[in-house]
Design a protein that fits this description.
Blueprint (H helix, E strand, L loop, with lengths): L1 E5 L3 H13 L3 E5 L2 H10 L4 E5 L7 H9 L6 E5 L4 H9 L4 E4 L4 H18 L5 E4 L2 E4 L4 E4 L2 E3 L3 H12 L7 H9 L8 H14 L8 E4 L3 E4 L13
Parallel strand pairs: 1-2, 1-3, 3-4, 4-5
Antiparallel strand pairs: 6-7, 7-8, 8-9, 10-11
Helix pairs in contact: 2-3, 6-7, 6-8
The chain binds calcium ion.
């Protein structure tokens, strides 16, 4: 789970950042509206925590810019906790609103509610199927041909990322960021090693391969036509 905090007050952002990191979330911080919008558009976040009063662009402008392109869940924070602010935030596409000062426990409850709500919206997406491979995101269970596969937490994370984007080529950079919270230059080899491990469990024992390497681009999880029927490039 990856979250973004857009907040210029260092005290608030570091407090929220520390608390959410301890709970196991990967948390990015932007300290102004321009960076905040850029991050929110550039990366995939599960929830964006967006302050209203920001230098550069205010929270409403960031929200508007984001909503032109994405439906990422947004919780707005504001010291000006008036009804007008709340209504404006929600009307412009925020998913929730929290007045300052807020308790950390309340923020966490709202974040978790948004994540659950989104999982509920896409209920069918918590159970993914690629050919005879099934990934249950909620129960964190993987089966192939009905047989349970035993994956480590990181292997599960990697496989579920690929499964959620089945048919799409994911670059090593994207995988590294989503699964390990690292930049590409830190160690791309970690991705290759993990792919190899997942492949050994998910593909090696089976004749029909699902996890494919796309040379120079990345990896894709998909059920491909058998060779005899394949047309064009693979
Ligand atoms: Ca602020």
């Amino acid at each position: 789970m990856r979250l973004l905090i857009v907040e210029d007050e260092e005290k608030t952002s570091s407090y929220v950042h520390r608390g959410l990191t301890e709970l196991g979330y990967i948390v990015d911080v932007a300290t102004n509206g321009i960076d905040g919008l850029h991050y929110a558009l550039e990366w995939e976040y599960d929830v964006v925590i967006l302050d209203v009063m920001l230098p550069g662009k205010d929270g409403y402008d960031v929200l508007q810019g984001l909503r032109l392109h994405k439906k990422t869940p947004v919780i707005m924070l504001s010291a000006r906790g008036t009804v007008d602010d709340r209504i404006r935030g929600l009307r412009e596409g925020a998913d929730d609103y929290l007045g300052k000062p807020f308790s950390f426990a309340e923020l966490v409850a709202r974040v978790q509610a948004l994540i659950r709500r989104r999982a509920g919206d896409t209920a069918d997406l918590t159970h993914l199927r690629i050919d005879d491979l099934e990934v249950d995101l909620q129960a964190r269970k993987v089966t192939r041909g009905g047989l349970r596969l035993d994956l480590t937490a990181k292997e599960f994370c990697l496989l579920s990322l690929l499964a959620r984007h089945q048919g799409e080529i994911l670059s090593k950079l994207m995988i590294a960021e989503q699964v390990w919270d690292m930049n590409f230059d830190s160690d791309a080899n970690v991705v290759e090693v993990a792919i190899k491990r997942v492949r050994a469990k998910v593909d090696a024992p089976y004749p029909h391969k699902l996890l494919h390497t796309v040379r120079g681009m990345g990896y894709v999880l998909e059920s491909r036509e058998e060779h005899g029927r394949q047309s064009g490039t693979s």
